[in-house]
Amino acid sequence: MDYREYLERKAQIGGMHGFDPLFIPKMAFPFQEALIDWSVRKGRSLIAADCGLGKSIIELAFAQNVVERTNGNVLLLTPLAVSGQMEREAEKFGIEAHRSRDGKIKGKITITNYEQLDKFSPSDFDGIVCDESSILKNYDGQTKQAITIFARKMKYRLLATATAAPNDYIELGTSSEALGYLGYMDMLSKFFINDQNNCATNRRGRFSDATKWRMKGHAHDQFWRWVASWMRAVRFPSDIGFSDDGYILPELIENEIELRDLDNKPAEMLFSIPAVGLKEVRDEIVATIPDRCERAAEIALSRDGLSTIWCNRNDEGDLLEKLIPGSVQVSGKDNDDAKEEKLTAFSRGEIDKLIIKPKIGAFGLNWQHCGHMVFFPTYSYEQYYQAVRRHWRFGQKNKVQADIIYTEGTAFMMDGLRRKKEQAAEMFTRLIEFMNNAQSISIDRVYNTKPDMPEWIRGNK
């Protein structure tokens, strides 16, 4: 091993694990062609392209390239109800891919949802594609670990997501681990400091979620340079040097509705006060269910046409279903087939008012035919972002209105969403900065630059 190779390994930068592309769909736009080309050459990568930028065609083209290269099989994993959508997309792009519900391989490219992964064997595949890979955070540790282990056994891997959660370094670490780069524990040790001065781990050897991490002061550039070596982030085609024609979105109206002077405040209090701690927040949310649901129903019924109403609890969903005649709720108690049937019916315009939780339906579905949503906020910016992006995405022809309902006691949640929105924009800006800076991803420039020697040394030569 020469010194240059040693430095590459230390930096975890560089390394193309793929091959020259063999197939580019004729329907792909130039910026999509560029992302397909890079992902196939890279071999193991993450594409973080915003909603509506065509991740489906990139994923399917990647899978087809692996098939043509290896004559082997590729497994394409999607969230629930997106498998059928992906199969239709494949047919549109002239790529043969078929859906499996029973664990059987259905051709060279098999599409299935994450919940079916345990029915397949990694030895039957040469490549894997994980659609909406950020959804992995919603699974329990055992399921997430199974997906990561399955992916690690593949020679060719592609993860795809819309937007990584703002400053969610664990998500970046688990993505890196699934791709065969730094494990996220190694990532944290390399680039971060534990602010609690302890390295608590859980029973699986993972760092505890309660452990707080911040990036080392000198590591910012190195960290984003490392991420940019295996990830491409795209909000608009112009982020990678292409025209934004056709990718300017219509107006998004975010209508924040704060409910005041409710009857849930303690008798001794003249005004409501912000909830503090998990118990108080939970109590505030439970106490205000009737008020929030009644306002959500009032708004949904006042609008003609389609609406989605995003809630977080079963009791919220049940009450909303009673308050909104003709509405349909997608609930956790539904089996997978029932959930998919309802989601598909809404996609076809057969349901006007859909009540759903972000954890069930906020990933992957194309609902540009709907321009209105009601949302109960939580701590999660990603859930809000993904819910909005079901409607407000490239291909939407009309303005989109998001009515966000919260109470005085949970106003801090809105403050958190605004702050995380800024953080997400900052994260994308840093990624794009390093992604497009040739010096940042070039080992030759980073490590082979001649040092500027002091005059007294040059004078002795």
Pick out its properties:
2 domains, 461 residues, 17 helices, Rossmann fold, seven-stranded parallel β-sheet, alpha/beta, 15 strands
Relative helix content: 25-40%
> What is the rounded Rg?
24 Å
In the predicted model, the low-confidence regions spanning at least 5 consecutive residues are 198-210, 266-271, 438-461
Number of strands: 15
Q: What's the CATH topology name of the largest domain?
A: Rossmann fold
CATH architecture of the largest domain, please? 3-Layer(aba) Sandwich
Give the overall pLDDT as a whole number. Answer: 83
Q: Give the CA-based shape.
A: globular
User: Which CATH class of the largest domain?
Assistant: Alpha Beta
> In DSSP terms, counting alpha (H) and pi (I) runs of 4 or more, how many helices?
17
Largest sheet: 7 strands, parallel
- What structural class results from the helix and strand content? alpha/beta
Kindly report the spatial arrangement of strands forming the biggest sheet: 3-4-2-5-6-1-9
Q: How many domains comprise the coordinates?
A: 2
| Cα-to-Cα separation, first versus last residue | 31 Å
